[in-house]
């Protein structure tokens, strides 16, 4: 039986999933490190994602050392990883990750990258292989489903890729982790989604002292 298609993102209280639109590849480039715009971007990003850095599972997965927090945040981070049999991401997210991820990329499953160019699969240590798909979001999802088997497919991001899959009626459920930060500007999660095409049912809420995780199922209208 095929698994679900889902996404899981952290969002500021005012609806942003990333800071101002500094190209992510530039953020992690040698040229960008001393740029004040990049420094502001990194500060905001660290505030948004700060809940996950201390988690025991996160530290283990990225080989950051032993120890770490355990509790609902750690459980959710681990469960998200364990349910995922394959991921789909946009080219811009991949470009940033290619510069920032360790050699042993943190997915350990096949990843399908949406692109307009051809490129041979890129195999990394630890079980991650990036496959480059240039014939649309449905083709990438079909290949990801085949690779995932009975596990779930995660639409990893960025926001525009998630919006495409939502608008296409291809998402089964998603979790938004609400972080207690305000951005004021940046990249919104639901900017380009047609609200007349989707209805949401809230199915779960988990709160910790750091963040609140809210899960919804998606119903086509």
From TrEMBL:
<dbReference type="InterPro" id="IPR050765">
    <property type="entry name" value="Riboflavin_Biosynth_HTPR"/>
</dbReference>
<dbReference type="InterPro" id="IPR024072">
    <property type="entry name" value="DHFR-like_dom_sf"/>
</dbReference>
<protein>
    <submittedName>
        <fullName>Dihydrofolate reductase</fullName>
    </submittedName>
</protein>
<dbReference type="Pfam" id="PF01872">
    <property type="entry name" value="RibD_C"/>
</dbReference>
<dbReference type="GO" id="GO:0009231">
    <property type="term" value="P:riboflavin biosynthetic process"/>
</dbReference>
<feature type="domain" description="Bacterial bifunctional deaminase-reductase C-terminal">
    <location>
        <begin position="4"/>
        <end position="206"/>
    </location>
</feature>
<dbReference type="InterPro" id="IPR002734">
    <property type="entry name" value="RibDG_C"/>
</dbReference>
<dbReference type="GO" id="GO:0008703">
    <property type="term" value="F:5-amino-6-(5-phosphoribosylamino)uracil reductase activity"/>
</dbReference>
